[in-house]
Amino acid sequence: MSSVDVLLAAVAVALIVASAFLALAETALTRMNLIKALTLQEHRRRGGATLARLMERPEGWLNPLLFVLLLCNLVAATLVGLVAEHAFGPWGVVVSLAFEVIIIFVVAEAIPKTWAIQHGEESALLAAPLVAALAGFPPVRLVARGLIALSNLILPGRGLRQGPFVSEDELLAMADVAAVDSVIEREERALIHSIIEFGDTVAREVRVPRPDMVAVEGGDTIGEVLERAIAAGYSRIPVFESGIDDIVGIVFAKDLTRAARDGRTAQPVRTLARLAHFVPETKRVAELMREMQAEKFHMAIVVDEYGGTAGLVTLEDLIEELVGEIVDEYDVEEPLIEWLPSGDSRVNARMAVDEVNELLHARLPEGDDWDSIGGLVLHLLGHVPAEGETVEIAGWRLVAERVQGRRIGRVRLSRGDGHADAEDADAGVEATLRRLAASRAKSDDGPRGATAEGPSARTTG
């Protein structure tokens, strides 16, 4: 072997060592997550701060690391082939192939990656400073950006512009696994689910509906409104003028009490009304909560697309979406769900369909035209039911047990006679909804709401 061959062999060995370290870094960093990195940073572990910065933007270092790792392997394999060909002639190709398969795989792949899996935190902390320096090296960074641009041409849409990401379903699954493994408590798992779902909830889903609102007319006297506030147990009451769709403000119980103490009980309540905040029913509750915190108000009037009053939402309603129902010693409310000895369940018609599905492990349809179980019954029947009227869908029988005027109060749920499996239930739901939509579109002249028949959904009086 000439001196040039020795030099090439030395360079190949150095590249194999570098490849081994980069393979270790790839495995350690891709198995690390931001939460662990921040924990290591809080514990003041050496390299923890750099590791946390890398985890915040994985797209900034992953492509440069993979590019340099591939470059080291290819150059090392090429140099080994040249040296082997000079030393052994035509048999050098066989020697170099055996060397690359055995030595490079074992030394530069299997050993470092296995060690990185067994010593995840130590490997990540060790690799973080050098990977950060590598990703910040201008030539490498420039080539990595070019590769990202190329990948974006091959992968349209999201491409690699935003790098790796984690979906909501993956986060929820992680919380479920952590609860099963006793890493977190069941209550903490439920809170994590509530927080993630909170971002997708809109005001329409949490509002107090219009029929349940307690509101007073602006011409009512302070004394009358104070008595009503005490009877209802509310600290804030909307004030309207010509009708419930003409809300002009909100009166506070403390203002009523102060006015009554000053002897102004005969004055109209409109003189005490404060500014009312109005929000569309499609407003996301996470944004609404931030507005309530910033502007310091606890109640907002929810309006529909036509400007009419659809209900109201309070800060307590929003908090309950996160932590569950908050009931104080003055609240007297019916339970949302009752379990009956027969195995059936009786639910409040205002209960959301997704909550009923979760509690009963059902597959009742969720749609844009209804949010509550009472709304689902109305949609399926096409008319206001009489007490005892029944509809069946997805293997469940829904009975309107209590009907007050034009409003369903309680719904009884029981499994139908022929409870289908999950796929059949889903198919039945879709077929039923399509049939209802088609029949209503054809019968604009006839009575509103055709009767759904068949095994998937049927109604009885």
Describe the structure.
The chain has a six-stranded antiparallel beta sheet with strand order 8-9-12-11-10-13. Strands 1-7-6-5 form a four-stranded mixed beta sheet. The protein has helices spanning 3-31, 34-42, 48-56, 62-88, 92-118, 120-136, 138-154, 168-180, 186-198, 203-206, 222-232, 253-261, 285-295, 315-323, 353-360, 373-381, 422-442, and strands at residues 208-209, 216-217, 236-240, 247-252, 277-280, 299-303, 309-314, 337-339, 345-348, 390-393, 396-404, 407-415, 459-460. Residues 159-165, 418-423 and 446-461 have low confidence and may be disordered. It is elongated, with a radius of gyration of 33 Å. It has four domains: 3-154, no CATH class; 168-198; 203-323, Roll (CBS-domain); 337-460, Uridine Diphospho-n-acetylenolpyruvylglucosamine Reductase, domain 3. By secondary structure, it is α+β, with helices and mostly antiparallel strands. Helix 1 (3-31) runs antiparallel to helix 4 (62-88), helix 1 runs parallel beside helix 5 and helix 1 (3-31) crosses helix 6 (120-136). The N and C termini lie far apart (98 Å).
Q: Key terms for this structure?
A:
461 residues, alpha+beta, CBS-domain, 4 domains, six-stranded antiparallel β-sheet, four-stranded mixed β-sheet, 17 helices, 13 strands, 53% helix
Mean pLDDT: 80
As a percent range, the share of strand residues is 5-15%
Secondary structure class reads alpha+beta
Query: Which shape, going by the Cα principal axes?
Result: elongated
The tally of structural domains comes to 4
- Count of extended strands: 13
Gyration radius from CA atoms, angstroms: 33 Å
Order of helices and strands: HHHHHHHHHHEEHEEHEHEEHEEHHEEEHE
Helix coverage percent of residues? Answer: 40-55%
- Please outline the major beta sheet: 6 strands, antiparallel
| Poorly predicted runs | 159-165, 418-423, 446-461
Q: Order of strands in the sheet with the most strands? A: 8-9-12-11-10-13
Number of helices: 17
Distance between the termini: 98 Å
